[in-house]
Design a protein that fits this description.
Number of helices: 5
Radius of gyration: 15 Å
Largest sheet: 5 strands, mixed
Length: 171
């Protein structure tokens, strides 16, 4: 769900590199990952970062863009959902676009409830990793202006999610 701007939740950003079509050209994408639950290990974080990198590259996000991804529990997610959307229940993912910086390179924050993602992975009979992939893609699309409030918007967003899911399938 796309939400109003939220100040960055943390300062610890990690610089990651993506190679572009020209081998000599490097795209810098600052991706900060914060796991407030303590449930994700280093391998999980690296994998989710690679997924975000590939999605951003595929969507043509400009060089030196910044993205923050936080993993929280349902209690914190419910508080954020109430505070920013006036909905008093948890949700799986919230996106807070910043749309700031040179050429709007400060993309914003994606907040994912690990508790809800776990429940959904069981309900949808997929691994937690697959569910988190889906939520990262969904959150990035919201940051870039996609929405699903109207039928046509939903159709466009779902098609883009399917396309990007195929691209990150092996990660």
């Amino acid at each position: 769900m796309n939400c109003p701007s939220l100040p960055l939740l943390f300062d610890n950003s990690v610089r990651v590199f993506l190679s572009q079509a020209r081998p000599s050209k490097i795209v810098f994408v600052n991706i900060a990952i914060l796991d407030e639950t303590g449930d994700l290990d280093r391998k999980d974080k690296r994998s989710l970062k690679k997924i975000a990198q590939l999605v951003l590259k595929e969507l043509g996000v400009p060089e030196d863009s910044e993205l923050s991804i936080s993993f929280i529990d349902d209690i914190k997610m419910r508080e954020l959902n109430l505070s920013y959307r006036q909905i008093d229940r948890t949700t799986d993912v919230l996106s807070f676009p910043q749309n700031e910086g040179p050429d709007f390179t400060l993309l914003g924050d994606i907040i994912i409830s690990l508790d809800t993602a776990r429940r959904h992975s069981i309900s949808y009979d997929v691994t937690l990793h697959e569910e988190l992939k889906k939520l990262v893609i969904h959150g990035v699309l919201h940051l870039l202006g996609h929405d699903h409030k109207k039928k046509k918007e939903t159709q466009i967003m779902r098609e883009k999610e399917k396309e990007l899911s195929l691209i990150v399938k092996e990660l």
